[in-house]
């Protein structure tokens, strides 16, 4: 519960920092889609991904910092958990940028 509250605080802080650095935008750290402008809502639809999986802590309490987190859109967040190393943002970016998009209906 304590980790959850701390993560929510850090998430809000990361979003605020992202907006300041990106002229009001909140881009996904993998695909770079602006998740504030994407749906025209007042809040960004963005997930806070732990680069070190909490499931590997085995009950150990570790202080989460901003460097331990990444802001990812829901699709990229789901995709990174399919990788062998879910802390590898560079691999996720490489995979995303190597995808060739096909028109719908093909």
Structural features, described:
The protein is mainly alpha-helical and 106 residues long. The chain is built from 3 helices and 2 strands, in the order αββαα.
Defining traits:
106 residues; mainly alpha; two-stranded antiparallel ribbon
Shape, please? Answer: globular
Order of helices and strands: HEEHH
- Structural Rg: 15 Å
**Residues in helix, %:** 25-40%
Q: Structural class given helices, strands, pairing?
A: mainly alpha
Average pLDDT for all residues: 87
The count of β-strands is 2
Q: What is the beta-strand fraction?
A: 5-15%
Arrangement of strands in the largest sheet: 1-2
The major beta sheet can be summarized as: 2 strands, antiparallel
How far apart lie the N and C ends? 46 Å
Q: List the total number of helices.
A: 3
Secondary structure layout plus pairing:
Blueprint: H1 2-21, E1 47-50, E2 69-72, H2 74-80, H3 89-97
Antiparallel strand pairs: 1-2
Summarize the structure.
With 106 residues, the chain is mainly α. Helices cover 34% and strands 8% of the residues.
């Amino acid at each position: 519960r304590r980790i959850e509250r701390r993560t929510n605080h850090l998430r809000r802080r990361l979003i605020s920092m992202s907006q300041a650095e990106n002229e009001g935008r909140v881009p996904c750290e993998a695909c770079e889609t602006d998740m504030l402008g994407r749906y025209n809502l007042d809040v960004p639809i963005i997930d806070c991904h732990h680069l070190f999986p909490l499931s590997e802590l085995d009950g150990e309490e570790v202080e989460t910092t901003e460097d331990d987190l990444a802001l990812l859109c829901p699709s990229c967040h789901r995709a990174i958990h399919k990788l062998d190393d879910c802390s590898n943002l560079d691999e996720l970016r490489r995979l995303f940028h190597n995808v060739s998009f096909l028109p719908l209906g093909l």
